[in-house]
């Protein structure tokens, strides 16, 4: 007979396995070699079957396994068999949970119905956009060279910035804040600014960070690339003043060859984004859209959005907007040869 402690260990192991399996299933991801391996390999003597497992009366097919494997990046052919088995166990756990949900009529719960419909709409709209942008061509070598040459702060003159960001509490209207912010632009270093604020009894929070050029928003990079060590720039926010002090900048240039993958990815995604924006504009113009009830006034005016954009909460957001930033991962792959 199994002891209580042994039973507990098995239960904990099962719980860990369930969590891992569900995470694997939620990851959803195909490599052609993996699909071929799963579909063609490991068959019984009676021949290959498209059914991988039966859970009570429900079947789990090889196609379901392949669908999950589709979006697992960098899966090597030799890893496919083990990965497919892990995916299958995750699908078994998922199917057991689904059967319980249906048995308890959770599929009829209004919140579940709404979630399913929302997922359906998301999948369909994404499928349409994927089809629309699927034919976007890769940029030519000339386009890549032109992009590289036009952005020296990102490439040939790339730097890694050591910064200190100050969020300073300040009252008054915008004009008063701007007048106060102008005084901070002349400070010489983060320590000097902190001492000045403490002496004046001003509340503030300081956050140091080190960021490469590709992680800096385009609108900010142009000015930051021309600043010297110890210099600062400021911006008025709804709750006070944001000051960014450049402590140091280390030169880290990138060649065109090293940046090619990142530039290619950016230009392709930018073309897709513009194509999607143009298509949505066309669809809106062709459709009859009527706003009713509390939304009868239509969408918020562009002026409201613009005024909000004029006062960002931070000069240095956690990540640059996808439409204006290079993929830092792609760029780091190009830089790996330097290490």
Provide key terms for this protein:
single chain; alpha+beta; 6 strands; 339 residues; disordered N terminus; four-stranded antiparallel beta sheet; 14% strand; two-stranded antiparallel ribbon; extended
Please give a structural write-up.
This protein has 339 residues and is α+β, with helices and mostly antiparallel strands. It folds into 2 domains: 4-108, no CATH class; 141-285 and 311-339, no CATH class. Helices cover 51% and strands 14% of the residues. It has 12 helices and 6 strands. Helix 2 (32-40) packs antiparallel against helix 3 (62-69).
Strand and helix map with partners:
Elements: H1 4-27, H2 32-40, E1 51-55, E2 58-61, H3 62-69, H4 80-103, H5 110-133, H6 141-150, E3 159-169, H7 174-184, H8 190-199, E4 204-212, H9 218-224, E5 232-237, E6 240-251, H10 256-286, H11 302-309, H12 328-335
Antiparallel strand pairs: 1-2, 3-4, 3-6, 5-6
Protein name: EpsD family peptidyl-prolyl cis-trans isomerase
Domain PpiC: 139-250
InterPro entries: PPIase_EpsD, PPIase_PpiC, Trigger_fact/SurA_dom_sf
């Amino acid at each position: 007979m199994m002891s209580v402690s042994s039973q507990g260990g098995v239960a904990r192991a099962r719980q860990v396995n369930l969590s891992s399996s569900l995470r694997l299933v939620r990851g959803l991801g195909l490599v052609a070699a993996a699909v071929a391996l799963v579909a063609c390999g490991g068959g019984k003597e009676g021949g290959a079957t498209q059914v991988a497992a039966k859970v009570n009366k429900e079947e789990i097919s090889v196609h379901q396994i392949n669908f999950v494997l589709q979006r697992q990046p960098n899966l090597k052919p030799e890893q496919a068999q083990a990965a497919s088995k892990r995916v299958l166990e995750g699908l078994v756990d998922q199917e057991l949970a689904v059967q319980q949900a249906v048995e308890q009529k959770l599929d009829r719960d209004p919140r579940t119905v709404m979630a399913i419909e929302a997922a359906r709409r998301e999948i369909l709209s994404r499928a349409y956009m994927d089809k629309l942008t699927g034919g976007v061509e890769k940029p030519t070598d000339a386009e890549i060279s032109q992009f590289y040459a036009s952005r020296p702060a990102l490439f040939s003159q790339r730097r890694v910035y050591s910064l200190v960001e100050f969020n300073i509490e300040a009252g008054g209207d915008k004009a008063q804040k701007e007048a106060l912010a102008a005084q901070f632009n002349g400070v010489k270093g983060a320590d000097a600014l902190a001492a000045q604020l403490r002496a004046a009894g001003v509340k503030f929070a300081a956050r140091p960070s080190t960021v490469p050029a590709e992680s800096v928003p385009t609108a900010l990079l142009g000015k930051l690339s021309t600043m010297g060590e110890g210099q600062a720039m400021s911006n008025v926010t709804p709750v006070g003043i944001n000051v960014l002090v450049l402590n140091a900048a280390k030169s880290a240039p990138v060649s065109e060859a090293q940046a090619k993958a990142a530039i290619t990815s950016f230009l392709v995604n930018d073309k897709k984004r513009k194509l999607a924006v143009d298509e949505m504009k066309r669809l809106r113009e062709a459709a009859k859209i009527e706003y009713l009830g509390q939304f009868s006034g239509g969408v918020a005016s562009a002026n409201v959005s613009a005024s909000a954009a004029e006062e960002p909460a931070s000069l240095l957001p956690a990540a640059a907007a996808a439409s204006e930033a290079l993929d830092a991962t792609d760029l780091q792959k190009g830089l790996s040869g330097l290490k």
